[in-house]
Amino acid sequence: MTISESRAAQVLYAAHEIWNRRDLAALLELFDDDMIYWSNVGTASAETVLHGKADFLAFLNGLQHMEGLSVPHSFRFRDGVATANAEFYLRDHRSGYSHSGTFRQVLTFRGHRILRMDEYHDAAALSSFLALLDSEASEP
Questions:
Q1: How many CB atoms lie within 10 A of CB 25?
Q2: pLDDT at 25 (0 to 100)
Q3: Residue 64's CB: how many other CB atoms inside 10 A?
Q4: pLDDT in tens, 5-42
């Protein structure tokens, strides 16, 4: 079953809306059990690759100390692949530091669920922000 353009748009926009509410259970319902999350920002390596809902949930739980908001726009759909840009804002509750920017998402689907989500951030800027938070959290 191939997803329609309108349904793909609904799923993508719903994912952002649900993430903004931090309803992780509802967010995971939008993803296939065999889902893959990929981002060009990582910790020890240059990227993050997560397989399955359990790994994705653990990753999302690790972000719970941050307030965040993402707003997608510029949705496109072609050959079963959805793309969009998103504006985002993150604020760390512990330090008060914040970061904002844009990223690109590419989604593929299995049925009406997200099978793979790739995110392309300004890796240098976001990595620097996350490293700053890590250094603040590790200080005595």
A1: 8
A2: 97
A3: 11
A4: 999 999 999 999 999 999 999 999 999 999 999 999 97
Token pair for 140: 């005595």
Q: Domain segments of the chain: what residues?
A: 5-138
Work out the average pLDDT over 86-111. Answer: 96
Can you give the length of the chain in residues? 140
Residue 109 has pLDDT above 90, yes or no: yes
Q: Is 77 helix (H, G, I), strand (E, B) or coil?
A: strand
Which residues on neighbouring strands pair with residue 66, listed in sequence order? 92
The pTM of this model reads 0.90
Retrieve residue 132's tokens.
């700053």
If DSSP codes are grouped into helix, strand and coil, which group holds residue 57? helix
CA 69 remoteness from chain centre: 11
Domain 5-138: CATH architecture, name and number where available: Roll (3.10)
